[in-house]
Design a protein that fits this description.
Largest sheet: 7 strands, antiparallel
Structural class: alpha+beta
Strand content: 5-15%
Distance between the termini: 94 Å
Low-confidence stretches: 1-9, 164-171, 256-267
Shape: elongated
Helix content: 40-55%
Mean pLDDT: 81
């Protein structure tokens, strides 16, 4: 056998710095018949231990200094089966989850407890990134794939190509949070196919000081109804906040469209409800000005959508229940700050009955010659609490109030009345049908007349708001 073949057959032995020093010292000691005491002092071991190491070296050579656990898998190392299972689960079942959320779901549903770094490194080896990776990580993977597809390209060409593929986003300065809980509530809606097959809008309200979600509601469109539900949750659970910060949606800001139907004119309603409760309303067209709710929308999209899918939720009713019962408490516990009453500026909210009539839609109307008004393509008449008809002259101005629970009221001549729908056809015929049994008339509750329901006050507020919108 030639010397070259012997060298090829000999396995190369790599030692750590500590054992490499031991090997060189003992080798030099034996080759030159050195001083054992000096060698033991240099290595920091006893003469007896040095003699053992010399004997091991004489028997095995350099291999005697290889640690016994070398090339042996640690006890806590994941098996190949579990590693492959994690990769398969992410590709098939949890493909829309971020990696931190994925580790939590693995422990909750699959009974696999692993760390974030383990999952990250395991998926990175397979070129699998989180749905929203860091720009640096995304660029590194893009360079790797580009180099595989174009092996002859130089480093400068690769950097130029990747820079064109992944353009840098505009940077925005960081802002400090508010000091008090309830000082500023940021609101926004995000559209996504959250469940089922159709897109839905999640109306989200988040506190700027603590980062806690204080209100959330699903609706099929971004509407006043969705924001009213979020507002109602805030009032019932926390109280009256100091300020809302929103975008310039027509739900919050005024529009000067002259052709808009009156019963669809909800442009002033949210602001009017805020004014009634003493809540300041600020609107902005710059998304970075309400960056907390914008960032929260991304986090919620990354976590809520897979949770709804895994829970088998396909209806908007069940989705809203899941929001309040499961998702919001878990989100606030994980990402929010603990609420301290000493740092809260929420005021005591009114009772449920007043909330119902405050979160209302108000619309101006005029009585016709038949003492009726038209509202949402239906005709109504005013009645008192006992159902007695109240007639008004033609041209009498009134204010229709659609309460949060759907109840319809009308204010006229500084009084509040109930609205009774006039059916297109009579329910019974006195000539043909038998005479129905007379039921005892129950007195219905009519709320007292309050300042926000005065017709002149509402119209004056609308005019002032429209003029302010035209000026700005």
């Amino acid at each position: 056998i030639s010397l070259l073949e012997v060298m090829v057959r000999v396995k190369r032995i790599d030692l750590s710095m500590k054992y490499e020093q031991q090997y060189k010292t003992i080798k030099e000691l034996i080759d030159h018949n050195g001083n054992k005491k000096r060698a033991a002092l240099k290595l920091g071991i006893s003469i007896r231990q040095l003699n053992r190491r010399i004997k091991q070296y004489q028997e095995k050579g350099k291999a005697a200094f290889v640690h016994g656990n070398a090339d042996r898998k640690p006890v806590n190392c994941l098996s190949t089966e579990i590693s492959n299972q994690i990769v398969t689960l992410y590709r098939t079942k949890y493909q829309d989850c971020n990696l931190k959320h994925f580790t939590e779901l693995l422990e909750h549903f699959e009974n696999i407890k692993v760390s974030y770094s383990t999952v990250y490194n395991l998926l990175k080896k397979q070129d699998i990134l989180s749905p929203k990776p860091w720009r640096k990580t995304r660029r590194a993977l893009a360079k790797k794939k580009w180099h595989q597809d174009h092996p002859k390209q130089g480093k400068q060409d690769i950097d130029t190509a990747i820079s064109h593929q992944l353009a840098l986003e505009d940077a925005h300065p960081r802002h400090e949070r508010c000091k008090y809980f309830g000082e500023e509530i940021q609101m926004d809606a995000s559209v996504l196919v959250w469940f089922g097959e159709n897109k839905a809008y999640l109306h989200l309200a988040i506190d700027n000081a603590t980062g806690n979600i204080v209100g959330a509601y699903f609706d099929w469109q971004e509407t006043l109804n969705g924001y009213y539900h979020a507002f109602k949750q805030i009032l019932e659970n926390y109280g009256i906040p100091l300020c809302f910060k929103t975008d310039n949606r027509t739900v919050f800001n005024y529009e000067t469209a002259k052709t808009k139907a009156a019963h669809k004119d909800v442009l002033t309603q949210f602001g009017y409800a805020c004014k009634t409760l003493g809540v300041d309303l600020k609107t902005t067209s710059v998304s970075q000005a309400k960056g907390m709710v914008e960032r929260a929308n991304q986090t919620v999209q990354g976590r809520l959508k897979p949770e709804l899918r895994l829970a088998g939720i396909n209806t908007i009713e069940k989705a809203n229940e899941y929001l309040l019962d499961v998702f919001i408490p878990a989100f606030n516990q994980k990402f929010g700050q603990k609420i301290r009453s000493a740092y809260s500026v929420f005021e005591t909210a009114p009772d449920a009955r007043k909330i119902n009539y405050t979160l209302a839609v108000l619309t101006s109307r005029v009585f016709d010659s038949g003492s009726a008004i038209s509202f949402k393509n239906k005709h109504y008449q005013a009645t008192d609490e006992y159902g007695k008809l109240i007639c008004f002259m033609k041209g009498t101005k009134c204010l229709v109030i659609e309460a949060f629970d759907g109840q319809l009221l009308v204010t006229a001549d500084e009084h509040v009345y109930l609205l009774k729908e006039i059916p297109k056809n009579a329910v019974t015929s006195p000539a043909v049908d038998p005479e129905p049994k007379k039921k005892r008339t129950k007195k219905k509750y009519i709320p007292p007349m309050t300042h926000p329901w005065k017709h002149e006050s509402f119209v004056r507020q609308q005019r002032r708001a429209h003029k302010h919108h035209q000026y700005t």
